[in-house]
Design goal:
The complex is a heterodimer. By secondary structure, chain A is mostly helical. Chain A has two domains: 281 residues, MetI-like (MetI-like fold); 215 residues, MetI-like fold (Orthogonal Bundle), CATH 1.10.3720. Chain B folds into two domains: 226 residues, P-loop containing nucleotide triphosphate hydrolases (Rossmann fold), CATH 3.40.50; 117 residues, Nucleic acid-binding proteins (OB fold (Dihydrolipoamide Acetyltransferase, E2P), Beta Barrel), CATH 2.40.50.140. Chain B is 23% helix and 33% strand. Chain B is an alpha+beta fold. In chain B, the strands form five sheets. A six-stranded mixed sheet of chain B has the order 7-8-9-3-10-11, with helices on both faces. A five-stranded antiparallel sheet of chain B has the order 2-1-4-5-6, covered by helices on one side. The chains are: A mainly alpha, B alpha+beta.
Chain lengths: 566, 372
C-alpha cells in the first residue's frame, strides 16, 4: 500500500469548495449590510458617495421620527397578539381535539400564507375602506352612519397582517404541540390530576416556550413587514418604519442616510428579537423535543367539535376565501361596488392588464427570475445546508450565523443596502435582472436553508457515513446518497423559492429599474396610480400565473422522472 | 491507480492503535487507548455505553478526528498526530456495519450491496456476480430487486452485512450491529456473523455492550471504561480471570468478597483472605498483586448451594436463604452469609425453601484475586 505517495489527480476537496461557496454566500449577505451601515453614518451631502464625512447625526435625528417608531410598535404588537392567538387556537384545535376533518384542515392552514399580505391588503381595502369598502356600503345600505370598519387604521393594518401571519404561528406552535409526548399528560391524569389541572400544570408549561418563541419570531417579522402598511397606510399618511424608509428613498431629493439610519435601528431591534427567539427555543426545548414522532393524542371534546370546526372554517374563510372572492368580484366590474348591476360587469380589466406591455414583460421577467432563483437557490442552499449541518468543517457555525442574518433584516432594508452596494460594483448589474436575482438569493437564504435543513436533519448521518465507508469520495456521496435522500426537501425548497420570488415586493420595489421590472411592484404601482379594479385583475393574474407555472412544472417533472414503459 | 481504495482482494490487514485520544469539546471520550488486531483476528471492544468504544471504532474508521495518537492499518499510518497523517475514511480500505444499518432507502437491495463495487468502478458483470454471491451468503438472494425501504430489521441487517464485505475490504468494523434486533433474532444473527467471519477470514473489530455477543464471536476482547482499557484477553480469560472489580462486575454477575490477606494461610498455590466477620476464603492469585483492599471475584454460577454439608475441606460455610427468584433457566438465591448477601445461581430443579439453612461452597479455583 503506497497511500501517502499515491499519485492523484487534483480534485477540489470538501474543505476548499466549502470555503469558496460559504465565503461567497457570507459576502453576499455582509456586503450590502456594510454599505447600509456606511450610508447611515454619512453626514455630508446625502447624495454623495462615498460619504463626504462620517458622524452619528442621522441617528441623533431619529427621535424626530418617534411617532413612526411608535406606529410600528403598535401595529407589530397588535398584529403579533392576534396572529399568535389565532395560531394557538388553530393548532390546539387541529392537533389536540377530535374535530372532524383534521388532516385536510391542517393542509389548508397553509393557504393564508400563500394569499400574501399584499393581496390581503388589496382585498381588505376593497372590503373595508371607510368610504367605498364593500362592508361599509352594506352598512350604509342597512341604515348605518358613515362607516362600520376602517381598515386603514393601525389596528386594521395589524388585522390584515395577523390573518396572514396566523398561518406561520400555526405551523410553529403546531410543531411544538405535536412533538409533545402524550404520555406526559397521561402520567398526570393517572396520578389523579383532573383535565384542567393537567392542562394548567403540565401541558401549558411544556408548550409555553414554543408559544413564546413563535410570538417573538412573529413580532420580529411584523416589525419588518411592509406591503400591508404600504397599501393601507400610505394614502392616509400613516407610516411605519419600513414605509417611512421607502418614502425617504423614493421622494425627491432622496434622504438615503436618514433612511439607512432608520433601517439600521430596525435591523438592531429585529436582530435582538431573533437572538432572543433562538435563546428561548434552545432553553425551552426540554421534554418536548425527543426526536421521536408521537401520534398526538386527540382529546374528545364531544359536542364542542362543531363549534371548533366552525372556528377553523371561519378563519380560512376570512383569510383566504373572502379576499380572493373580493378581488375576483372587483376585477370583473367597471367600478367596484358591492351591489351587482348587469351593466357594471366587464372583462375589460383583464383585457387591459394583458395588453399592457409593461405588465406582460414584468410578469415574464418575474417568472424567469422565479425559475432562476429557485434553481440556483436550491443548488446553492442545498450545498450550504450540507456544509453547515453535515460536513463538520471548522467555522461552519459562524457561517450559519451570517447566512441567517437576512431573517433579521427587513427585505426593504436589505435591498437598500444592495442599492448602494451594487451601484458601485465594477460589473454593471445595477438595474438589471441579475441584481434582482442576487437580491432574491440573498434575502431568501434563511427560507431555503431552513426548509432543506429540516429534511437534512431527519436523514441519519450514518447513511452518508456508510457511503464513505464503502470508499465513496465526497462528491460521489453527495450525488448518490445525500442529494437523492434530500429530494423531498429540495423540491419543497424549490417551490417555496419560486413562489416567494415571483411575489416578492420589499426588495424588488427598490431594485427594479426601467430595464428590469417585476410584477409585484407593478401591481403596487397600479394600485396607487391607476384603478382598483385593474389592480385586482393584476393580482389575480399573478396568482394564476404562479399556479399555472407550478402545474406545468409538476407535469414536466413527473414525465421526466418516470422512465418510459414502467 | 488513481483513487483505488482497496488493497488486493482477500488481503488481511492488521490494525494498530497507539495512545489514542479523542475529545468531544471539553470531554475526553477516549484517553490513551492502545491495542493491536492481528491479521484475520476478531477483536471486540466491550464496555458500558459511554465508555468510548464506539468513538474508538469511529476514529479507526476515519469518521472521528482524534486529538492525538496513531492508527496504523496494515502497517501504514492512516492517522497520526506527529508526523501529521490524516487519511480520509474513504481511502482507508475499511468497511463498516452500522448500528442503524444505514441502508439507503432510495435504492434496491442490489444497488445497496453493489455500491462499494461501483465506487471502485468494477465492470458491471463482475458487480452482478459478486453481489449475487454476497447476497447468497447472507441468504437474501430472493430479495435483490426489492426496495430497501421495504425490509424488516433482520433483513436490513443482512443487507448491511453483504454491503460491508462484498468489496473484500481489508478490515471489517462492526458498530453494535445487533443492538436494534429482538433477543431471538440477535442470538441467530450472532451465530451467522461468527460463521461469516470464519468463512471470509477478514480482520474484524467489533463493538458491543452485550457480554454474550462479545464472548461468542471474539478471538480476543478489550474491556473499556471511561475511555480507557480495563483488561484485554481471550473470552475465557476475561470471564474466568477478571482483572479488577469493574471487569468482574461487568462481565457476568459476580460476588465480590473483600477482606485482609492472610499470607500465613497461603498454601498449595492458594491465597487466603479473612473477611471482616472472620471467615477464611481461599482462592487463586494468578500471579497478581492484590490492591489496597484485597478482593476475590466469585461468579454467581460457581457458588454451590446445598442442604447437606458438602465433603470439601475449604470454602464451605452455612448460610440462610433469604430470597429465591425463579428465572426460568436458573433460580437465583440471595443467601445471608457472614453478615452480607451472597448471590447464587443454581439450576431451577434443586429447590431450597426461603428461610431455610443451607451450605454454600466454592472451589478455590473459582475465587479469583483482583488487582484493584
Amino acid at each position: 500500500m503506497d497511500s501517502p505517495a499515491r499519485a492523484r489527480r487534483f480534485r477540489p476537496g470538501p474543505r476548499l469548495v466549502s470555503l469558496l461557496v460559504g465565503g461567497a454566500a457570507a459576502i453576499l449577505v455582509l456586503y450590502p449590510i456594510a454599505f447600509l451601515l456606511q450610508a447611515s453614518l454619512s453626514v455630508g451631502d446625502p447624495q454623495a458617495r462615498p460619504p463626504e464625512a462620517y458622524g452619528l447625526d442621522n441617528y441623533a435625528d431619529l427621535p424626530r421620527y418617534g411617532h413612526i417608531f411608535a406606529n410600528t410598535l403598535v401595529v407589530a404588537v397588535a398584529a403579533s397578539v392576534m396572529a399568535v392567538a389565532l395560531g394557538f387556537v388553530m393548532s390546539w384545535i387541529l392537533s389536540r381535539t377530535n374535530v372532524p376533518g383534521r388532516g385536510g384542515l391542517e393542509q389548508l392552514m397553509a393557504l393564508p400564507y400563500y394569499v400574501t399580505p399584499l393581496m390581503g391588503a388589496l382585498a381588505w381595502s376593497l372590503l373595508a375602506s371607510p368610504s367605498g369598502g364593500f362592508l361599509n356600503q352594506l352598512w350604509r345600505a342597512a341604515g348605518g352612519e358613515s362607516y362600520l370598519i376602517d381598515i386603514t387604521t393601525p389596528y386594521g393594518i395589524a388585522w390584515v397582517m395577523a390573518l396572514f401571519e396566523g398561518s406561520v404561528a400555526f405551523v410553529m406552535i403546531g410543531a411544538v404541540m405535536k412533538s409533545m409526548d402524550p404520555a406526559l399528560e397521561e402520567a398526570s391524569q393517572v396520578l389523579g390530576a383532573g383535565r384542567a389541572r393537567t392542562m394548567l400544570r403540565v401541558t401549558l408549561p411544556l408548550v409555553l416556550p414554543g408559544v413564546l418563541g413563535a410570538a417573538i419570531f412573529v413580532f420580529a417579522e411584523m416589525l419588518g413587514s411592509f406591503s400591508a402598511a404600504l397599501v393601507l397606510g400610505l394614502p392616509s399618511r400613516f407610516y411605519v418604519v419600513t414605509t417611512a424608509m421607502y418614502q425617504l428613498v423614493s421622494q425627491y431629493p432622496p434622504q438615503f442616510p436618514r433612511a439607512a439610519a432608520m433601517g439600521v435601528s430596525l435591523f438592531a431591534v429585529m436582530f435582538a428579537m431573533v437572538w432572543i427567539y433562538r435563546r428561548v427555543v434552545r432553553a425551552g426545548s426540554y421534554a418536548t423535543i425527543t426526536g421521536k414522532a408521537f401520534r398526538a393524542r386527540a382529546m374528545d371534546v364531544g359536542g364542542l367539535r362543531w363549534p371548533l370546526l366552525a372556528v377553523c372554517v371561519v378563519y380560512l374563510g376570512i383569510a383566504v376565501v373572502l379576499p380572493v372572492l373580493t378581488l375576483l368580484y372587483a376585477s370583473v366590474q367597471r367600478l367596484a361596488t358591492v351591489f351587482p348591476r348587469a351593466d357594471n360587469f366587464t372583462l375589460a380589466n383583464y383585457a387591459t392588464a394583458l395588453s399592457l406591455d409593461a405588465v406582460r414583460s414584468a410578469l415574464g421577467d418575474s417568472l424567469i427570475l422565479g425559475l432562476g432563483t429557485a434553481t440556483v437557490g436550491v443548488l446553492l442552499m442545498g450545498f450550504l445546508a450540507w456544509m453547515i449541518y453535515r460536513s463538520r468543517l471548522p467555522g461552519v457555525g459562524a457561517i450559519e450565523y451570517v447566512l441567517m442574518f437576512p431573517q433579521a433584516v427587513p427585505r426593504l432594508v436589505f435591498a437598500f443596502g444592495m442599492l448602494w452596494a451594487w451601484l458601485i460594483f465594477p460589473i454593471p448589474i445595477y438595474g438589471t435582472l441579475w441584481l434582482l436575482l442576487i437580491a432574491y438569493l440573498t434575502v431568501f437564504l434563511p427560507l431555503g436553508l431552513r426548509t432543506i435543513a429540516g429534511v437534512m436533519l431527519q436523514i441519519d448521518r450514518s447513511l452518508e457515513e456508510s457511503a464513505q465507508m464503502c470508499g465513496a469520495p465526497w462528491g460521489y456521496r453527495l450525488r448518490t446518497v445525500t442529494m437523492p435522500l434530500l429530494r423531498p426537501g429540495l423540491i419543497a425548497a424549490w417551490l417555496l423559492l419560486f413562489i416567494a420570488s415571483v411575489r416578492e415586493l420589499g426588495a424588488s420595489i427598490l431594485l427594479t429599474g426601467p430595464k428590469a421590472k417585476v410584477i409585484t411592484p407593478t401591481i403596487v404601482e397600479s394600485w396607487f396610480s391607476t384603478s382598483t379594479e385593474l389592480t385586482a385583475a393584476l393580482a389575480l393574474l399573478q396568482t394564476l400565473a404562479v399556479s399555472v407555472a407550478l402545474a406545468l412544472l409538476f407535469t414536466v417533472a413527473r414525465r421526466a422522472t418516470q422512465p418510459a414503459g414502467e | 491507480m488513481s483513487g483505488e481504495p482497496t488493497p488486493a482482494p482477500g488481503r488481511r490487514a492488521s490494525i494498530e492503535v497507539r495512545d489514542l485520544v479523542v475529545r468531544y469539546g471539553s470531554v475526553l471520550a477516549v484517553r490513551g487507548v492502545g491495542f493491536t488486531v492481528a491479521p484475520g483476528e476478531h477483536l471486540t471492544l466491550l464496555g458500558p455505553s459511554g465508555c468510548g468504544k464506539t468513538t474508538t471504532l469511529r476514529a479507526i474508521a476515519g469518521l472521528e478526528q482524534p486529538e492525538s495518537g496513531e492508527i496504523r492499518i496494515d502497517g501504514q499510518p492512516v492517522f497520526s498526530s506527529s508526523p501529521r497523517v490524516r487519511v480520509p475514511a474513504e481511502r482507508r480500505g475499511l468497511s463498516m456495519v452500522f448500528q442503524s444499518y444505514a441502508i439507503w432507502p432510495h435504492m434496491t437491495v442490489f444497488d445497496n450491496v453493489a455500491y462499494g463495487l461501483r465506487v471502485r468502478k468494477r465492470p458491471e458483470a463482475e458487480v452482478a456476480e459478486r453481489v449475487r454471491g454476497a447476497l447468497g451468503l447472507v441468504q437474501m438472494s430472493e430479495l435483490a430487486a426489492r426496495r430497501a425501504s421495504r425490509l424488516s430489521g433482520g433483513q436490513q441487517q443482512r443487507v448491511a452485512l453483504a454491503r460491508a464485505f462484498v468489496f473484500s475490504p481489508a478490515v471489517l468494523l462492526f458498530d453494535e450491529p445487533l443492538s436494534n434486533l429482538d433477543a431471538k433474532l440477535r442470538a441467530e444473527m450472532r451465530l451467522e456473523i461468527k460463521e461469516l467471519q470464519r468463512t471470509l477470514g477478514i480482520t474484524s473489530l467489533y463493538v458491543t455492550h452485550d457480554l454474550e455477543e462479545a464472548l461468542a464471536i471474539s478471538d480476543r476482547i478489550v474491556v473499556m471504561r471511561d475511555g480507557m482499557i480495563e483488561q484485554t484477553g481471550t473470552p475465557t480469560e476475561i470471564y474466568d480471570r477478571p482483572r479488577n472489580r469493574f471487569v468482574a462486575d461487568f462481565v457476568g454477575s459476580a460476588n465480590l468478597i473483600e477482606g485482609r490477606l492472610r499470607p500465613d494461610l497461603a498454601a498449595e498455590g492458594l491465597v487466603a483472605i479473612e473477611t471482616a466477620s472472620g471467615a477464611i476464603v481461599r482462592g487463586v492469585a494468578h500471579d497478581r498483586r492484590p490492591g489496597a483492599r484485597p478482593c476475590f471475584s466469585v461468579r454467581t454460577v460457581h457458588v454451590r448451594l446445598s442442604r447437606q454439608r458438602p465433603p470439601a475441606q475449604v470454602n464451605v460455610w452455612p448460610a440462610i436463604v433469604r430470597r429465591r427468584v425463579f428465572q426460568g433457566d436458573f433460580t437465583q438465591y440471595h443467601a445471608d452469609w457472614e453478615g452480607r448477601t451472597l448471590v447464587v445461581r443454581g439450576l431451577a430443579a434443586e429447590g431450597i425453601e426461603e428461610g431455610s439453612t443451607a451450605y454454600v461452597a466454592v472451589e478455590p479455583r473459582h475465587c479469583v484475586l483482583l488487582e484493584e
